[in-house]
């Protein structure tokens, strides 16, 4: 099979869909891998690194898209790439279609087979291809939140860990899944006072045991979230409903009651965000103000650490890429229900109805 890996063109996106190690594995199995020249530079991989692994380097995105049978990316195609979509192409990438009706329609119109990383699901309901980026986004959320709490960034001027004789910063994490857990780990490590909110009492029990009493846990309700947000310095939104739009759990009324310079980081922005007032931002312009609070809603947060992210992503996706290449799309989907769960669009039809709301 011919596998194509184009350069990512979303704002400040420096990740790449495959490492040289991934190329080596596919080439050793008899497949051709086309890499757009410079695609790996932002992640620290040169064209020569890919050549040494057996890839063919091509000059333009057009060449990669037109030749590929299976196209492996990181981020969803943006409008400038819609013209490359076609009926005999399989696209394997993050898609987040519930928050992107224009892309959904473009894929339907083109007849492209689209398999979404974020909805590949194991029997235990875990999301193996979303997990590594959720881990990274969770950790980054507290890192960037702490940065924007600094006075020069327009924040409250508070140190999350405080010092003796001063209060610690208060961090509220809404959603106790993979991203939320990693956000809490970072916040605890910085010495903040951390509260995790989740709808699942069994999940809160697991988190209470995991953190050994170093975090507070609360069952999610509108009143609980309202009270916690009002007193928070940093709110991290990490709510996920696989394949569907995120619920708006923090309202504008709640934000209005926050102290000036407080920060909200919406990890769920790819799925529309879980804060009212969220809209996607970029690494070049990551924040905006809502009332007197600072929203950070970068839609590709892990792109800020492209080397770590690319390595982690290929570690997770490569086995599925190999299956698609070795078996062909039909047989690979039939053989693996987990991979089949990622099938979003095929033959001009939406397969995953969660996309439609």
From TrEMBL:
GO terms for molecular function: alanine dehydrogenase activity. Keywords: NAD, Oxidoreductase. Gene3D superfamilies: NAD(P)-binding Rossmann-like Domain (3.40.50.720). The keyword Oxidoreductase applies. It holds the Pfam family AlaDh_PNT_C. Residues 4-137 form the Alanine dehydrogenase/pyridine nucleotide transhydrogenase N-terminal domain. The keyword Oxidoreductase applies. It catalyses: L-alanine + NAD(+) + H2O = pyruvate + NH4(+) + NADH + H(+). SMART domains: AlaDh_PNT_C, AlaDh_PNT_N. It is an enzyme of class 1 (oxidoreductase). Its EC number is 1.4.1.1. Residues 149-297 form the Alanine dehydrogenase/pyridine nucleotide transhydrogenase NAD(H)-binding domain. Pathway: Amino-acid degradation; L-alanine degradation via dehydrogenase pathway; NH(3) and pyruvate from L-alanine: step 1/1. Coiled coil: none annotated. PANTHER family: ALANINE DEHYDROGENASE (PTHR42795). Belongs to the AlaDH/PNT family. Catalyzes the reversible reductive amination of pyruvate to L-alanine. This is Alanine dehydrogenase. The gene is ald.
